[in-house]
DNA sequence: CACAAAAACAGAATTGACTCAATTTTAGAA
DNA sequence: TTCTAAAATTGAGTCAATTCTGTTTTTGTG
C-alpha cells in the first residue's frame, strides 16, 4: 500500500493545483481553460475530472489553502488578544482581511463565493461552508477569551455575537471583492465603525 | 411612437419572463434550457439574447419583481412601526423573509446570489447590488424613525447600525437558502437572538 | 513470472450557453 | 401606396465544460 499509485496520485493532484493556480492568476478563472490546465499539468482533461468534480472544485482547493493559513494566523490573536475589546476585534479581522488577497485575486474570490452558494452540496460548497464556520468559531473563541479576561460582560450571548460579527464582516468582504476599486483600508475602517456600536454595548 | 413595435416588444418581454419563471420553477435554473424557454415563449433563441444579456439576467428580472414587492410591503412598517425596538426590527425583517420564497425557490435564490457576485458589473449584478442597498436604506429609515419617536438613542450611528443589521440578516438568509432543510421560523429566531444584543445597546 | 481484477487515464463525443450574418418586419417619408 | 433605412428576428454555428467509453497501468495472487 502507499506504493506507486498513491505517489503518482499525490503528484498529479499537486501538478493540477499548481497549474490551475498559475493559470487562474494569469488568465483569470474564466480565462483558464480546462484544456490549458490539463496541458500545463501534463495530464489529460479526463484525468482532471477524475480528481475534481468540476472546475470550481479546483479553485476550491486553492481557496482552502488560503483560508487555513488565515485561521492559523488568527490563533495567535485569540491566544494573546490586545487588552481592549475594539482593538482585539480589529486585530483579528485585520489578519483575515490583509491575508485575503495574498494568493487569491478579487476575481478568484468572486468565483469561489459564487460557486459556494450555487452548489452548496458540492465538495467545495461544503468545504467553504466549513471554513466560514471555522472563522465564526474563531471569533467566538476570541469573545470567550475576552470574557474570561474580564474585558467583555459575562451576560453577553457570545455565540450570537460571534455570528453577528462574522456575518457583518463577511458581507462587507463580499461587497469589497465585488468592487475592484474598493480598498482594503476603507473596508477595515467601515467594519471598525460598525463594530464600534457593538463594542460600546459589550465592553465592561 | 409607442406603436406596434413597442407593443410587440413589451409583449415579448412578458412572454419570455413568464416562460422562464415557469420553467425555472419546474426544472430549476440549470434545468431550464434557453431553447426550452425560447420555445415556450414562442420566440427564437437569438431574440432572447436581444432582450437579455445572458441567462442570469432573465432570472434577475424575476428577482427584481420579488424584491420590489418586498420593499413596498416594508414601507408600511417604516411608516408606522411597533412601539418597541425589538418588535419593530422583527416585523420589518419578518416581512422580508416571509415574502422571500413567494415567487422564488431556494434554488433560484442561490443562482441569483451567485450570479450577482460572479458578474457584479452585468445588468443584473448592478441591479442586485442596488436592491441590497435599497433594503439597507429601508432599515436605516426605520432606525431613523425609531430615533424620531424617541425609542432609539439619539447618539447611535444609524447608518452603520442599519448596515450591520442588514448585513447580518442577509448573510443569515444566504445560509438559509443554501440549506434546503432550513426552516423560516428557525431563521427568524436566530436573527432575533442576534438582534437582541443590538437592541439592548440602542434602545432608550 | 504470468494473469485477472481494479483503478486510473485519455481524448473523442456531447451538451448547452451564447454569437453572428442573413433575412424579415416596421416606421415613416415621398 | 411604395420604397428605404433602421430595428428586430432567426437559427445555424462556435466554444468550452463535462461525460463517456475504450485502453493502459497498477496491484495482488497463484
From TrEMBL, chains A, B:
Cross-referenced Gene3D superfamilies: Tetracycline Repressor, domain 2
Which residues does UniProt assign to DNA binding?
Answer: 33-52
Q: Which keywords are on file for this protein?
A: DNA-binding
HTH tetR-type domain sequence ranges: 10-70
| Pfam families listed in its UniProt record | TetR_N
Signal peptide segment: none
Q: InterPro entries this protein is in?
A: Homeodomain-like_sf (IPR009057), HTH-type_TetR-like_transc_reg (IPR050109), HTH_TetR (IPR001647), Tet_transcr_reg_TetR-rel_C_sf (IPR036271)
- Record-level Gene Ontology MF annotations: DNA-binding transcription factor activity; transcription cis-regulatory region binding
Q: What is this protein called?
A: TetR family transcriptional regulator
Q: Which organism is it from?
A: Rhizobium loti
Amino acid at each position: 500500500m502507499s506504493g506507486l499509485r498513491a505517489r503518482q496520485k499525490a503528484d498529479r493532484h499537486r501538478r493540477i493545483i499548481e497549474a490551475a493556480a498559475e493559470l487562474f492568476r494569469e488568465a483569470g478563472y474564466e480565462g483558464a481553460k480546462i484544456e490549458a490546465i490539463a496541458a500545463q499539468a501534463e495530464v489529460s482533461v479526463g484525468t482532471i475530472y477524475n480528481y475534481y468534480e468540476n472546475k470550481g472544485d479546483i479553485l476550491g482547493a486553492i481557496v482552502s489553502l488560503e483560508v487555513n493559513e488565515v485561521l492559523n494566523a488568527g490563533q495567535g490573536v485569540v491566544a494573546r488578544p490586545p487588552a481592549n475589546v475594539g482593538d482585539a476585534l480589529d486585530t483579528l479581522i485585520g489578519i483575515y482581511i490583509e491575508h485575503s488577497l495574498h494568493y487569491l485575486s478579487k476575481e478568484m474570490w468572486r468565483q469561489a463565493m459564487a460557486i459556494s452558494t450555487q452548489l452548496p452540496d458540492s465538495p467545495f460548497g461544503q468545504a467553504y461552508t466549513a471554513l466560514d464556520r471555522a472563522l465564526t468559531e474563531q471569533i467566538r473563541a476570541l469573545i470567550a477569551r475576552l470574557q474570561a479576561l474580564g474585558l467583555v460582560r459575562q451576560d453577553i450571548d457570545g455565540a450570537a455575537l460571534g455570528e453577528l460579527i462574522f456575518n457583518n464582516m463577511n458581507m462587507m468582504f463580499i461587497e469589497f471583492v465585488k468592487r475592484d476599486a474598493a480598498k482594503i483600508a476603507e473596508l477595515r475602517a467601515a467594519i471598525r465603525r460598525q463594530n464600534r456600536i457593538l463594542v460600546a454595548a459589550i465592553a465592561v
